[in-house]
Write a structure and sequence with these properties.
- By secondary structure, this protein is an alpha/beta fold.
- The protein contains 15 helices and ten strands.
- Helices cover 47% and strands 18% of the residues.
- A seven-stranded mixed β-sheet has the order 6-5-4-7-8-10-9, with helices on both faces. Strands 1-3-2 form a three-stranded antiparallel β-sheet.
Length: 339
């Protein structure tokens, strides 16, 4: 990343939240889906979305400047990326993830970042996933959007990691089963146990039934840090877990994975990781900042730190690869030491 030199560049960073809000409101009003039917004028969009014309013009102008939409001869159209990722029901649509989890939940948590960094966060502020997921409505909103956001990476993980010899995988903090579903679809003999909070599990059971995998994916309600884990597993998956727990808890999570795992079992860690030199990528760094705003003791994860931690717990044959471009990485290792 080139160093900032101009005032406009500083302003672009400072005002970036305004562009994201333009994206979110467009998703809430389903503007990208309306445009998927063909290019429309502002007047046509206003009628289709039942929004005042001045408001549509302001939002669409902002979206045009970001490149999310184009405007030619007064007619707006989706960019290729908007058409692919933001149209409701499109194969790669992750609009629900953005409109609900990022806008309705994560965006607000950034308001407490200053207090977190200064160390004077009010005690009543949400400071753990356990407290957050105890609210049924919040758990449903988070889990519905996260499920949609996990199916794609789950398919990638199934392609990249060989689970052909595994019969039982423990998905720690596995949510509603987005990744587990994809792993089971790709590995016909695999069974998965998902450990997550009670309100998340309730929704997860529904998602798994809808996927036709109720006989192969089971759930265990509890807290990954305190609930006993099954002790007969061939693989353990930790996806987005380490970035959401206090840094001091991570070594114990690796040790627990080692203890419950069969010989030569696999440990799979998927999370937001910045480069070892901490020069990027930007999206991974920003996600770590988001998690800090929610979990004040969260670690800024790197592949090297994860690799060192799992090696200390007795794992070897460590491999790292990129998952979501610019955002997440996977570290895969095998149980090679002695219990």
């Amino acid at each position: 990343m080139e160093p900032v030199n101009k005032a406009e560049e500083v302003s672009s960073i400072a005002f970036g939240f305004m562009a994201s809000k333009a994206l979110f409101v467009a998703l809430h009003m389903d503007l990208f889906s309306l445009l998927s039917r063909g290019s429309l004028t502002a007047e046509e969009l206003a009628r289709g979305a039942d929004i005042a014309i001045n408001r549509v013009l302001t939002v669409m102008t902002a979206l045009t400047t970001t490149g999310l939409v184009t405007c030619e001869d007064g007619r707006y159209a989706n960019s290729p990326g908007a058409e692919k990722f933001l149209v409701r029901g499109a194969p790669l649509d992750f609009g629900d993830y953005l409109r609900f989890q990022i806008d309705r939940q994560m965006f607000g948590f950034m308001q407490q970042l200053e207090a977190v960094v200064k160390g004077n966060l009010d005690e009543v502020a949400i400071d753990s996933y356990e407290k957050w997921m105890a609210d049924e409505d919040e758990a449903r909103l988070y889990s519905e959007s996260q499920h949609a956001g996990s199916l794609g990476p789950g398919a990638t993980l199934a392609r990249r990691v060989d689970l052909g010899e595994a019969r039982h995988l423990l998905d720690v903090a596995g949510g509603t089963g987005g990744m587990a579903i994809r792993l089971c679809e790709a590995n016909s003999r695999l069974k998965v146990t998902i450990l997550d909070f009670l309100n998340v599990v309730a929704l997860g059971k529904q998602k798994v039934r809808e996927a036709g995998l109720g006989d192969r994916i089971s759930f265990l309600s509890g807290n990954a840090l305190t609930t006993a884990w099954p002790d007969d597993v061939d693989a353990v998956l930790m996806s987005y877990l380490l970035s959401g727990v206090p840094e001091q808890e991570i070594p114990e999570l690796f040790e627990r994975a080692f203890r419950v795992m069969q010989p030569a079992g696999l440990l799979i860690v998927h999370d937001f990781m910045v480069d070892d030199d901490r020069q990027g990528p930007a999206l991974a760094a920003l996600w770590q900042l988001q998690h800090l705003a929610f979990t004040p003791e969260a670690a800024s994860l790197t592949p090297a730190a994860i690799s060192q931690g799992i090696a200390a717990a007795g794992f070897g044959d460590i491999e790292t690869f990129n998952m979501i471009p610019g955002m997440t990485r996977v570290v895969v290792s095998r149980k090679t030491g002695e219990a």
